[in-house]
Amino acid sequence: KYPQEIQLDGQSYKTDEWTNVPPYILELTKRQLHQNPNHPIGILRDLIQSNFKDLGYTFYNNFKPAVTTVENFDILGFPQDHPGRSKSDTYYLNKTHLLRTHTSAHEHECFLDCKTPGYFITADVYRRDEIDRTHYPAFHQMEGARIWSKDTPNFEEQLVKDIESIPKTNIIVEDPVRDAPTHPGNPKQDYMTEKQAQLISIHLKKTIEFLVHNVFETARESAKLAGSTEPYLNEPLKVRWVEAYFPWTSPSFEIEVWWKGEWLECCGSGIVNQQVLLNAGLTDDKLGWAFGIGLDRIAMLLFGIPDIRLFWSLDERFSLQFQQGKIATFVPYSKYPGIDRDISFWLPGDSVLHENDVMEYVRSHAGDLAESVVLIDEFVHPKTGKKSQCYRINYQSMDRSLTRDEINVIHSKVENDLVDNFDVSIR
Ligand code: PHE
């Protein structure tokens, strides 16, 4: 099913039993939407970078998506049985290389390379997932990190000064989180004092609050400019901190932002485990924090984009609406009608077939033309005990009308794949 070798960014990867990255995902790696100054993702990246440009950060935007399992998992202390490592969650080029599932995969090289106190990494990341309005197997993250040396003269006073130099916001922090990281499952690390852990946590939280404040204030401004008069647009922004767990930070936190009547999970973060810094080649006096924020969902709010798939559209009616430095509200253009096709079959013996498996086959032939796959009917024959399933596939394009003929070709490829791989008999 896969070629002997996969070529990506000038490297060649020998495929093996771990390979599961389909060609249409490899195609997405070429798009680099975050590098495009006139694309919503690129505009959001620019906006955040401009808020941090005078605060001592280096910006890394050019990392290629193929990384090793060591970089994506081992260096960060992921246990061997962590679900993130499984083939059902992650796109593998082969046993040793994969498409990064998060920007944290590059922390180690930046910790070593960075000449400023902190850095930001923006990149496309990949996770096997369902596809709907808010999920797509490719999305974007921005990683931030900041490091100090414990040997700095008057270190704790310096931390206080650094906290004071973070621009103030009028954000309301609801249920202020315990600044002392004392939770048993989320402990302070032994190599720093309680006071140091506390100050670094405060620095981390204030930095993220500043980031979130800038982004959401911009979102409000653009909503108001677009004529919205909803009352929440005039209330101060409300956030709350909740405890979180990541294999490479301790303690860990997550910020949630109150937006349109619900708490939005926004950004995971924490104090970097010393072992990660040592793995990166730093000396044992270093300590600091890291966070990772997803850009796509925020860009959807900021630009009023109703469907995450639109980011990948090549239609000029999408791309011409956005310009560097401007937060414009997306004006929807007419949607083309979709085409429904059903597929019914008997499953052999006790085999199991999941909607996600069917989705994967449909996507491999239809790419972004697959709008949805739904199991609409299932029953077991009372005499033979065989299971019958019926899936409804909706094919739709964001950019053009589909022809019956092209859908017929795609749909029969899907049928053939199911017959070949699952030994089903089409009804
Ligand atoms: N990489 C994490 C994620 O993808 C976010 C994170 C980054 C958490 C850095 C802690 C520190 O969810």
From TrEMBL:
Gene3D superfamilies: Bira Bifunctional Protein, Domain 2, Ferrodoxin-fold anticodon-binding domain. It is an enzyme of class 6 (ligase). It catalyses: tRNA(Phe) + L-phenylalanine + ATP = L-phenylalanyl-tRNA(Phe) + AMP + diphosphate + H(+). Pfam families: FDX-ACB, tRNA-synt_2d. Keywords: Aminoacyl-tRNA synthetase, ATP-binding, Ligase, Mitochondrion, Nucleotide-binding, Protein biosynthesis, Transit peptide. SMART domains: FDX-ACB. This is Phenylalanine--tRNA ligase, mitochondrial. It comes from Suhomyces tanzawaensis NRRL Y-17324.
